[in-house]
Amino acid sequence: MSLDLLQADRPLFSYPSFKGRNEKPAPFLPMSRKEMRKLGWDSCDIIIVVGDAYVDHPSFGMAVIGRTLEAQGYRVGIISQPDWHSKDAFMQLGKPNLFFGVSAGNMDSMINRYTAERRMRHDDAYTPNNEGGKRPDRAVLGYTQRCKEAYKDVPVIIGGIEASLRRIAHYDYWSDKVRHSVLLDSKADILLFGNAERPLLEVAHRISLGESVKEMLDIRGTAILTKQALPNWEGIDSQQVDQLGKIDPIINPYADINVACATQKLSDESSAEQDVTQPIMVLPPLAKSHKKKPWENVYIQLPSYEKVKTDKVLYAHTSRVLHQETNPGCARALAQFHGKRLLWVNPPAYPLTTPEIDAVFGLQYQRVPHPVYGDAKIPAYDMIRFSINIMRGCFGGCTFCSITEHEGRVIQSRSEDSIIKEIETIRDKVPGFTGVISDLGGPTANMYRLKCKSPKAEQTCRRLSCVFPDICHHMNTDHEHTINLYRRARKLPGIKKVLIASGVRYDIAVEDPRYVKELVEHHVGGYLKIAPEHTEKGPLDKMMKPTMTSYEAFKQMFEKYSKAANKKQYLIPYFISAHPGTTDEDMVNLALWLKSNNFKLDQVQNFYPSPMANATTMYHTGKNPLHKVNNESEDVLITKGTRQRKLHKAILRYHVPENWPQIREVLKSLGLARKLIGRSASCLVPAESRDEMKAIIKKGGKPAQPALSRHTGLDQFKTQGTGKKSVKKRPNQKNRVGSTRKIKLGK
Question: Which one is the CATH code of 18-227+340-345: 3.40.50.280, 2.40.50.140, 3.90.650.10, 3.40.50.10860?
Answer without folding.
Answer: 3.40.50.280
